[in-house]
Design brief:
mainly alpha, two-stranded antiparallel ribbon, 4 strands, 8% strand, flat
């Protein structure tokens, strides 16, 4: 009986140690959650296959302007204590420090895009588009007839209906 009691006490000690480990890991990760969220968003939620061509065609200028605005606003509303940032042992001014932070975050986002395009995330960042679903009439859009058949081929007749101009299979209004 004493062996069973020792086993139960040992199991309780193991679960308590696991709980302490989980709490310690959470306490270490909490300050890093915003950065982890930033990296997760740009790694898994942005379709970089569509974003990179836009950046190459001049969209990078918009990103640079957003960076400048972010530095100016962040530097104005949240100056560091003592007026200086301490980065890698150097004291830099408020706006220079904010510029370094914003540039690092932008580079991290672009590196997440490069990792996504390389296939490093596998199916986690799969942006293949599903084919459009057909509505209950068997055609997917309102502006054209996808199947090469008119309104009458669906079993509808023109008497008592007025067309709304949605192609030759337009949705009808009953004239009662």
């Amino acid at each position: 009986m004493e062996a069973l009691f020792n086993l139960v006490i040992s199991l309780v000690d193991v679960f308590q140690a696991l709980l302490n480990l989980v709490v310690s890991v959470v306490l270490v990760l909490i300050p890093w959650l915003p950065l982890l969220g930033w990296l997760a968003f740009f790694s898994l939620a942005v379709n970089w296959a569509k974003a990179y061509p836009i950046l190459r065609r001049g969209g990078i200028l918009g990103v640079l302007l957003l960076m400048v605005v972010a530095v100016l606003v962040w530097g104005s509303v949240a100056p560091p204590e003592g007026g200086k940032h301490y980065l890698l042992g150097m004291a830099v001014s408020n706006f220079t420090g904010k510029f370094i932070y914003v540039t690092m975050l932008t580079c991290m986002a672009l590196m997440c895009g490069s990792a996504q395009l390389s296939g490093a995330f596998g199916s986690l960042a799969d942006f293949t588009e599903a084919p459009a679903q057909d509505d209950d009439h068997g055609h997917g859009g309102h502006g054209h007839d996808d199947h090469g058949h008119g309104h009458d081929s669906h079993g509808h007749s023109d008497h008592g209906h007025a067309s709304h101009g949605h192609g030759d299979h337009g949705h009808a209004v009953h004239a009662h």
